[in-house]
Write a structure and sequence with these properties.
Layout lengths: L9 E5 L17 H10 L4 E3 L10 H9 L4 E9 L8 H17 L4 E6 L18 H22 L2 E4 L10 H9 L7 E5 H6 L4 H7 L4 E6 L1 E2 L1 H10 L3 H6 L3 E2 L8 H9 L5 E5 L11 H15 L2
EC number: 4.2.1.44
Keywords: Lyase
InterPro entries: IolE/XylAMocC-like, Xyl_isomerase-like_sf, Xyl_isomerase-like_TIM-brl
């Protein structure tokens, strides 16, 4: 492992996801005030906005709430289905504009884009084929480039696309195809170490091979034993999370120390935001995990 003082380009944070938050409003989720209190207590300086509407969307109020807890925002997040072609552009842009405006108002510079799911994350219903046609790939890549251009022009934000289980950008082959088909001036990658491992990818290899395209990190681990069951049983992502497929570091894979070291060697400043998917979870579960995770990351030098 690197000298703990060496990871000076990595800015660590956490996200509502690590508190079991997947939706703007859900009775099984912790109230947003408690999330902010506890993420600050855990020792994090940076957060993501999470699902739009979970945190206050009034910039003045959110600025005040964050300021009282010494927190700053690293990014906003949106879901898109741009592989469906130009017909979905207007609806997509309406949603993206909302999130991008709040993201910019909070002083953040990144917008994380997650492709839409091909399989329902709760019911396992197959919504679309898991493989895109050549035409759909063209819609996806050109649509993301257009979105990256528009977001940069209108809001000054960098677009980082998040490979995700049960989406069309998931495996190593799909991620590399996406990167090889898009312009680095318009679109880069939010590498989620857990999702990439879930789909069979090697995060260190990706960082070393496509380093100039790594614009943002999500730190996450998978339990290899649970993952093997999930793959064998063809379990969709939501139920897989309920089985505990995403686990507390350092008990899973990939090892985060080497990932952070590889990211540090890129020589650029990067956010590394902890996400441990736990929806739904007991309200008292996240804080102890967050405290231990922050302590572990400090031991890695982050």
């Amino acid at each position: 492992m690197a000298n703990p003082s060496a990871l000076d380009r990595i800015r660590v944070g956490s996200a509502p996801d690590s508190w079991g938050v997947w939706f703007p409003d859900d009775p099984r989720q912790v109230p947003w005030e408690r999330f902010l209190d506890e993420v600050s207590e855990a020792g994090y300086d940076w957060i993501e906005l999470g699902p739009y509407g979970y945190l206050p969307t009034d910039p003045a109020r959110l600025t005040d709430e964050l300021g009282r807890r010494n927190l700053k925002v690293s990014a906003g997040t949106v879901f898109t289905g741009l592989h469906r072609g130009p017909a979905v552009w207007d609806e997509t842009w309406t949603h993206v504009s909302q999130v991008a405006a709040l993201t910019r108002a909070m002083g953040a510079r990144h917008l994380v884009v997650i492709p839409s799911f091909w399989r329902d994350d709760k019911t396992a219903e197959i919504l679309e084929p898991p493989e895109l046609t050549a035409e759909q790939w063209a819609h996806l890549t050109k649509g993301m480039e257009r979105l990256g251009h528009e977001v940069k022009e209108a809001y000054g934000l960098e677009l980082v696309v998040h490979p995700h289980a049960d989406t069309h950008i998931d495996t190593e082959d799909h991620v590399e195809r996406f990167l090889d088909s898009t312009d680095s001036e318009l679109v880069n990658l939010c590498l989620d170490t857990g999702h990439y491992a879930y789909c069979g990818g090697d995060s260190v290899k990706l960082i070393e091979t496509y380093g100039e395209r790594i614009g943002y990190l999500h730190l996450k681990q998978v339990d290899p034993d649970v993952l093997a069951e999930v793959v064998a049983d063809e379990v969709p992502f939501g139920p897989a999370v309920q089985r505990g497929v995403m686990c507390e570091p350092p008990s899973g894979v990939p090892a985060l120390g080497p990932v952070l070291e590889a990211a540090q060697r890129l020589g650029v400043e990067l956010f590394a935001i902890v996400e441990q998917d736990m929806y739904p979870c007991e309200p008292d579960k996240p804080l102890p995990i967050a405290l231990r995770t922050r302590r572990f990351l400090r031991s890695c030098g982050a």
